[in-house]
Specification:
Blueprint lengths: L1 H25 L11 E3 L2 E3 L5 H18 L1 E3 L2 H15 L3 H6 L3 E6 L5 E3 L4 E5 H4 L5 H16 L2 H12 L19 H9 L5 H17 L5 H14 L9 H4 L4 H13 L19
Parallel strand pairs: 4-6
Antiparallel strand pairs: 1-2, 3-4, 5-6
Helix pairs in contact: 1-8, 2-8, 3-6, 6-9, 6-10, 9-12, 10-12
Length: 281
């Protein structure tokens, strides 16, 4: 089993590394019209991709993900979509209207979940089947949706361009008419992006607030972390890259417990809803 998991992880890493090249061969290099850098004092300042641009990148990245993995459309997909839509309905109007939230279930033993810029959310069956309540499933979904709402990929992209750390892609943004970085290349960065500890903490906080606003029990987030720790210990990688991208530590769980206490309404939280994964197949 460990050998199979290692092979799956290595396969996924190769997929992420090769996405830009595959995209270049499969897609007719459309240009992403990000505002060109403005030169001042010999230095360039790069614009953060707009929500519209983020959605273009996310759409292209989603195509690449769905080329790699089989999407499931049975009861699991319907259930996941229903929970996701409930989270969306609880968001502020600006967040509901800005992003294209779409909820996908992927057939894979990888214990993983992630969202792409623009709103596509992917849940792997390897993680789905481990969760015992809707509240835990909602916890990871709300966390990933917060990455979208807070535009973490776009902010990281802007910072990386300023530091010139993504020159390995082999392309750069110039003034209109002088060439532009393709959506296919940007899609690779969106799929393989990793966020800072600060951004992960912000996603925890945002996801927790979202699930409470949607009428779920916030203990589901603690359940999520504790369930993953049973498999992985206090951090590290398991069936997929979820824990390596989202390191679980006692401090992180404690932060969530403190946030729950700050709601000062523990008696009014609804009971957690059991999740019978097998019945959804």
């Amino acid at each position: 089993m460990e050998k199979q998991e290692m092979e799956m992880n290595e396969s996924r890493r190769r997929f992420l590394r090769n996405t830009a090249l595959a995209g270049a061969g499969l897609v007719v290099a459309p240009t992403l019209l990000i505002a060109p850098p403005a030169e001042a004092g010999g230095l360039f300042s790069f614009a953060q991709p707009s929500p519209a641009e983020q959605k273009k990148v996310g759409d292209e990245a989603a195509k690449e993900v769905l080329r790699k993995y089989k999407e499931i459309f049975d009861g699991r997909a319907k259930h996941f979509d229903t929970l996701g839509r409930r989270l969306v309905a609880a968001l502020p109007a600006s967040d509901r209207q800005t992003w294209n939230y779409r909820f996908h279930v992927l057939d894979s033993k990888e214990v993983n979940a992630f969202a792409l810029p623009g709103g596509d959310m992917f849940m792997f069956t390897g993680l789905y089947e481990k969760l015992k309540t809707d509240d835990a499933l909602v916890a990871v979904t709300g966390h990933e949706m917060t990455h979208v709402r807070k535009q973490h990929w776009a902010k990281a992209y802007k910072k990386s361009q300023e530091r010139n750390t993504w020159l390995a892609i082999g392309l750069s943004i110039f003034h209109a008419g002088q060439g532009a970085q393709t959506i296919a290349s940007l899609a690779d960065s969106a799929i393989s992006s990793k966020f800072s500890r600060k951004e992960e903490d912000e996603a925890d906080a945002g996801g927790l607030q979202n699930m409470v606003d949607a009428g779920y029990n916030p203990q589901g987030m603690i359940e999520l972390f504790e369930e993953l720790q049973k498999v992985s210990g206090n951090g590290g990688s398991i069936g997929g890259d979820f824990l390596s991208d989202h390191p679980l530590t006692s401090a992180r769980i404690n932060s969530t417990k403190k946030r729950i206490a700050e709601f000062k309404r523990s008696d009014s939280f609804p009971p957690q809803t059991p999740l019978d994964y097998d019945s959804l197949k």
